[in-house]
Amino acid sequence: MPFTDYFAAPFESASDAFERLMWKYEPKIRKTVRQNTDRYTNYLFCDADYEEALQIARNAFWEANFKFDIAKVTPEKNPENVFIAFATSTMNGRLSDHLRKHYKNTTRESYCMDSDRSYDIPDEATEPLNMQMLRLLEEHLPNLTPREALYLKLSLFHDWSTQQIAEAAHVSEHTVRSWKKCLRKKLQPLKEELRKRK
């Protein structure tokens, strides 16, 4: 039976009991997300990345509630403590799978070249001016996530709109705007360098 059957107060509905349970352990859920995302800190810079991981953790917590078998808890153990350990293990598993799938195998060398194939960007000859701009950006590229580098390439070198990038990357326009916001912060030193050259 779900852990909420044990956790629920008398006459409390299952949905209310789960909501109360989840908010009670919201700090634990967030801590688990931080511990997992810290391992991939070079690839997770934007709020959208963290929010996605947080949603996966909450879904895993919900899954753990329904999979938990209270009948297997020995009498000397506190059922709630056993459940939280089980839920944490479930969240760690889901987060690890998600982060490995989307970030671990991404290399910094693939920022510009591999993204062409991934998003079906036409192979166009690069203009000399573009090459000059790319050289200026080269030292800053290692600080960008793959998606920020993709946004930079599509918006700067291909003149794609936020909507076009969102459709190509299969994300919302809000997510693309968050990439842009992070990108601006990271490229601030470049902006200052260009000002000095004027």
Architecture overview:
With 198 residues, the chain is mainly alpha-helical. The protein folds into 2 domains: 3-114, no CATH class; 129-181. It contains 11 helices and no strands.
Write a concise synopsis of the structure shown.
It is built from eleven helices and no strands. The protein has helices at 3-7, 14-24, 26-37, 47-67, 79-104, 113-118, 128-137, 146-157, 162-169, 173-186, 188-197.
Task: Give keywords.
11 helices; 198 residues; mainly alpha; single chain; 68% helix
User: Judging from the principal axes of the Cα atoms, what is the shape?
Assistant: elongated
Helix vs. strand class:
mainly alpha
Encode the helix/strand succession as letters.
HHHHHHHHHHH
Radius of gyration: 22 Å
Total individual domains:
2
Count of DSSP-assigned helices: 11
Please mark out the parts with pLDDT under 50 across 5 or more consecutive residues, or reply none. Answer: 104-128
Largest sheet: none
Q: Overall mean pLDDT score?
A: 75
β-strand number: 0
